[in-house]
Structures are given as structure tokens and as C-alpha cells.
Write a structure and sequence with these properties.
The complex is a heterodimer of chains A (64) and B (493). Chain A is an alpha+beta fold. Chain A has one domain: Alpha-Beta Plaits (2-Layer Sandwich), CATH 3.30.70. In chain A, 16% of the residues lie in helices and 22% in strands. Chain A has helices at 15-19, 50-54, and strands at 3-5, 25-28, 31-34, 61-63. Chain B has 2 domains: 45-330, Aldolase class I (TIM Barrel); 354-484, 2-Layer Sandwich (Nucleotidyltransferase, domain 5). Chain B is built from 13 helices and 18 strands. Chain B has helices spanning 45-51, 104-117, 136-149, 168-173, 188-191, 207-227, 247-256, 276-280, 287-297, 340-370, 427-436, 450-458, 472-484, and strands at 66-69, 78-79, 121-126, 154-159, 178-182, 197-200, 203-206, 231-238, 261-266, 303-304, 315-316, 376-380, 397-404, 407-415, 420-421, 424-425, 442-444, 462-464. In chain B, helix 2 packs across helix 3. Classes of the chains: A alpha+beta (64), B alpha/beta (493). At the A-B interface, helix 1 and helix 2 of A face loops of B. Chain B: GO terms for molecular function: 4 iron, 4 sulfur cluster binding; lyase activity; metal ion binding. Chain B: Pfam families: Nitro_FeMo-Co (PF02579), Radical_SAM (PF04055). Chain B: Keywords: 4Fe-4S, Iron, Iron-sulfur, Lyase, Metal-binding, Nitrogen fixation, S-adenosyl-L-methionine.
Chain lengths: 64, 493
């Protein structure tokens, strides 16, 4: 029940961080990381996962 | 104004008004009417005050003033088929590309560092690399920090327009009085070919639906800015076969909604950039195709023709990019703003501008008196200050002017690969320069060697250093009179 970011494809634009309704995404060192404990896959909040919907690179925000 | 301006040697590494004083001629302004203003006659004074130091909003200002972009806004809410922000190369110049992202605090340090070194600096812009209105927290924090330290710097943003209506009130509050919106279509069916998706209202939209939302938001943002008196520039990417003809319609729409300037830019498309258009083989327009479209748009919303499509971290005059000199690792940890260089520079520009304006009107007179119906396309090598002060072999771009019975106007620039590298002339590059200068009649430069001059001649282009260090318009006026005047002067070219 969580998403993850494929770091090698990530552009580090940070759009996912401020769209995440659960505050689960943080910039750590050089990469954005999703905290699986906090990620709800936006269930109950939005129809689609916000991080995956806003991500400019396809298949980069994906189910863990 | 009999004496030419004081030299700014030592004020900055690249002195703008590069002129050899012995040869530089004054514009011939003898009356006391030469003040600090170089305001074109037809323009409202309040508007001129706003744009006179903004290199992007005033062609005249771009000879004197520099802008810098800080890359504090990496997040974007739409995808464009001509954009790929993943790819970065220090030598690549196109919007959306940066070498390092900055936090608002780092951006402040960079702005102060640049202001202390580049006296021409007048504008701070945020142009991404994502969208300044969408990545708003970073944009706002940066503007607030900088405005506190450097009160007279102009703040400016560039946006795709989707989030713009939500930010207009705050933009006005922060005194951001220049906004650029990229508008490539007013017909969502065409939009669907340019934008694969947008992220809006917590979901992703695609196709015509996405383009419809974007279009409505762009128009409403533009109208809101106009209502508040904020000057707007509309950027349109000319994509042959997709929206080239359609941009005539776009021009009408934005003019009706009060856009101050319309800037039609050529699509930059290269498979190596990894953009959708680059990979799918969509070509960009040729220089003469772009000019033809711009010529058809004359009479509509006022056109900007001096855009260099700069990076989201560009620094310097529009034709140069000194961004690599001001990366974070090259900046001191602690910087204090020193206003003296910028102030001195402004005083000099004020005088120089009046002089150049007088020179310009005199040159215009020469073109009109010549009484010819013909037009002349002239390419100029310049380092700034409105003078012919660059060597042919050192030019990285040529500014192109058209002289015709209508007057002398800047019609665009042509980027070239520098022909002389460290004293060595590159033959292959010369071929490139010649083909880039297609359509040009005469090249004006400070110096040119016999060999390139002859090669240009073979390619049907004349070149001369006879007007070296003159004002651009003065030279073109004299040239035009010599070419087409009823009483031909001694031809110099």
C-alpha cells in the first residue's frame, strides 16, 4: 500500500512533494523518497495517486 | 553631448560600450533636448518607464541591460512536447534547461553576487525550469528575499498560465510588473498536438480536454493581468505544420486581451534533447520562415523579435550567457550588496541613450530622403551599447536589421558558431556562418579578415568594417543612402 520513486529516472522537480496529501515525500540528500509508512496511495483523498499524476517522467512514481 | 561617453573600463569584465574613442562618433546631438530618455515617440510615458530598463520588453533596452534567471522553480504542472527537463548540458541554450537548482536563499546569494559584478543587471526573472506560478512557494520566497536587499531590481516571471489566475493578486502585491505567458494556441484541437497532459485540480487531464482548460486559464490570467496594469509578453513557439498559421489567430486573441508584446520563437528540436518533437522528427522553422511569419503579424500585437530563448539560469545581456561564471561554488559564502557599480552604469546609460536616439533619428532621415522603395537586410556584429563593436570572427550571433522606406528596424538575430577560435580560423564554421546569414545583403563588423570577406562575397554577402564602432543605425542609414540614394555617396561597402 505505498508508492515509490525510481531515483535514477527522477528529475528532482519536487512537484510530487507538494502534491502529496500525506506529507510522505521528502528530499533526502540527492533524491526524493516516499515514506511507505505515511503513503496512503491517496486512497480516500483523491481518485488517482497525486505523485504519479504530476510526475513528468513516465513509470517513475510506481507501486512499491 | 559632443564628447562620447566616459569609458566603463574596469567597471565590469565585459564592458558594454566597447568603442575605440578615437573612432567613435557622437550621434550629432547638439541640442539640449537630449535627456536621459530614449522613449520612442508613439509610446505612453508610464509604459516607457516600466520597460526602459527591461531587456526583454524593450528592444532598445536590450543593448544596455542584462537579465538573470534563478532556477528556483523546478516543478511543473503541464507537459509540452518541446520540453524535456531531464536533460542538461552547460553549452545548451534553450528554455527549461538549467545546471543547478537553487533554494530561495541560494538564489539571493547568487543575485547579490551577480549584481556586484554585472552592472548591467536590471531584471530578475523566474522562468522555471518548471513553472513559476505552480512552484509558487519558491518563487514568492525568492522575490521577497531579493526585493528586501535590492529594491530597484525588476521582478519578472514566465509561466504557462495554468496556475496564473490563482497568483495574480500576489504578483501585483509584490510589484511584479512584467509577466510572460507561453501561449501556443487558442484552439484546443491544436493544443492537443502540443500538450500531452496537464495536472489541474488534483488530476491529470489529456487531449482536447486538457488543452481547453489550459486555454481558458491562459486567457483569464491574461485578462486579469491587463486589468491590473501588469505588462504582459506572450511567448509562442512556432511549430511548422502544427501552429504556424494558427499563430496569426493567437496574435489577434492576445491583442484583444491587452497583451503588450507577442514573441514568436522558433521551435528548438533536436533528437539529442530527448523531447517528444525532437524524437519524432518534428522540425523547427528556418530563420527566413520565422521572419516571414513575424512580418505577417506586423500590425497586430506588437512583436518582440530580439528573444534569445535563454535558459532558466541565464545571466547577462541577452546575446551572452555568463551563467557559468556564477555557479554556487564560485560565489563567496557571504555576499553584501554593493549598489555603486549599477548606479554608475545607469548614469552612463542615461547619457549614451539620448545620444543614440538622436543618431537614430538622423539615420532615419537619411533612409527616408534616399527615396528608394527598396529594402536592405543588414547583419551586425555587436557586443552591446548599440554599436558595431565586435569582430566578425568573434561573433556568436549577428543582429539583423532591415532598412526600408518604413525605417530601420531590428528584425531578429542569427546565432552562429564563432569563426575564430583562439586565433585559428575554422574553415568549416565559415560555411556554417554563410548559410546562417541567408538572405542578408551586408554584414557590418568592427574587423574582418580578407579571407572571410572574400568567401562571404562568393556566397553573395558583402561585408565591411568601414563603420566599425559607429552606432548601428547611423551606419545603416549611411549605407542605405549610399546604396539607393538619388545622389549616390561614395560607396563604402
Amino acid at each position: 500500500m505505498a508508492f515509490k520513486i525510481i531515483a535514477s529516472q527522477c528529475t528532482q522537480c519536487g512537484a510530487c512533494e507538494f502534491e502529496c496529501p500525506s506529507g510522505a515525500i521528502k528530499f533526502k540528500g540527492e533524491i526524493y523518497v516516499i515514506d511507505p509508512k505515511k503513503c496512503t496511495e491517496c486512497e480516500g483523498t483523491f481518485e488517482t495517486q497525486q505523485c504519479a499524476s504530476v510526475c513528468p517522467v513516465s513509470k517513475t512514481c510506481v507501486p512499491a | 553631448m559632443s564628447a562620447p561617453m566616459i569609458s566603463l573600463q574596469g567597471l565590469s569584465r565585459t564592458t558594454v560600450f566597447d568603442q575605440s574613442p578615437a573612432r567613435a562618433k557622437s550621434g550629432g546631438c547638439a541640442s539640449s533636448s537630449c535627456g536621459s530618455s530614449a522613449k520612442p515617440h508613439e509610446m505612453d510615458s508610464a509604459v516607457w518607464e516600466k520597460i526602459k530598463d527591461h531587456p526583454c520588453f524593450s528592444e532598445e533596452a536590450h543593448h544596455y541591460f542584462a537579465r538573470m534567471h534563478v532556477a528556483v522553480a523546478p516543478a511543473c504542472n503541464i507537459q509540452c512536447n518541446y520540453c524535456n527537463r531531464k536533460f542538461d548540458c552547460a553549452n545548451e541554450s534553450r528554455p527549461g534547461v538549467v545546471s543547478e537548482r537553487l533554494t530561495p536563499d541560494q538564489a539571493l546569494r547568487k543575485v547579490i553576487g551577480v549584481a556586484n559584478e554585472v552592472p548591467q543587471l536590471s531584471v530578475l526573472g523566474i522562468a522555471g525550469p518548471g513553472d513559476a506560478c505552480y512552484d509558487w512557494k519558491n518563487t514568492k520566497a525568492t522575490f521577497q528575499r531579493v526585493a528586501k536587499e535590492i529594491a530597484d531590481i525588476k521582478l519578472c516571471i514566465s509561466t504557462n498560465g495554468l496556475a496564473l489566475p490563482d497568483r495574480v493578486a500576489e504578483l501585483a502585491e509584490m510589484n511584479v510588473d512584467h509577466v510572460t505567458i507561453t501561449i501556443n494556441m487558442v484552439d484546443p484541437r491544436i493544443g492537443a498536438k502540443i500538450y500531452p497532459w496537464i495536472f489541474y485540480d488534483n488530476r491529470r487531464y489529456t487531449g482536447v480536454e486538457a488543452a481547453t482548460i489550459l486555454h481558458e486559464r491562459q486567457m483569464s490570467g491574461l485578462e486579469m493581468l491587463t486589468a491590473r496594469g501588469i505588462l504582459t509578453k506572450i511567448n509562442s513557439v512556432m511549430i511548422p505544420g502544427v501552429n504556424d498559421e494558427h499563430l496569426i489567430e493567437v496574435n489577434k486573441w492576445v491583442k484583444e486581451r491587452g497583451a503588450f508584446l507577442h514573441n514568436v520563437m522558433p521551435l528548438i528540436s533536436d533528437p539529442a534533447h530527448g523531447t517528444h518533437y525532437g524524437l519524432s522528427g518534428q522540425r523547427g522553422p528556418k530563420a527566413m520562415e520565422l521572419k516571414a511569419l513575424q512580418d505577417r503579424l506586423e500590425g497586430g500585437a506588437k512583436l518582440m523579435r530580439h528573444c534569445r530563448q535563454c535558459r532558466a539560469d541565464a545571466v547577462g545581456l541577452l546575446g551572452e550567457d555568463r551563467g557559468q561564471e556564477f555557479t554556487l561554488d564560485r560565489l563567496p559564502d557571504k555576499v553584501t550588496y554593493d549598489a555603486s557599480k549599477r548606479e554608475t552604469y545607469r548614469a552612463v546609460v542615461a547619457r549614451e541613450r539620448g545620444d543614440r536616439l538622436a543618431a537614430k533619428s538622423e539615420a532615419l532621415g537619411m533612409v527616408k530622403t534616399a527615396g528608394s522603395g527598396k529594402s536592405l537586410l543588414v547583419a551586425v556584429a555587436t557586443k552591446g551599447g548599440g554599436r558595431i563593436n565586435e569582430h566578425f570572427g568573434h561573433a556568436k550571433e549577428f543582429q539583423v536589421y532591415e532598412a526600408s522606406p518604413k525605417g530601420i528596424s531590428f528584425v531578429g538575430h542569427r546565432k552562429v558558431e564563432q569563426y575564430c577560435l583562439g586565433g585559428r580560423a575554422e574553415d568549416k564554421r565559415l560555411d556554417g556562418v554563410i548559410s546562417t546569414l541567408e538572405g542578408v545583403d551586408i554584414v557590418l563588423c568592427a574587423r574582418i579578415g580578407n579571407c572571410p570577406e572574400d568567401r562571404l562575397k562568393e556566397g553573395g554577402i558583402r561585408a565591411t568594417e568601414a563603420y566599425g564602432y559607429d552606432y548601428i543605425e547611423t551606419a545603416i542609414g549611411a549605407l542605405y543612402a549610399a546604396e539607393f540614394g538619388s545622389e549616390p555617396l561614395a560607396a563604402t561597402a
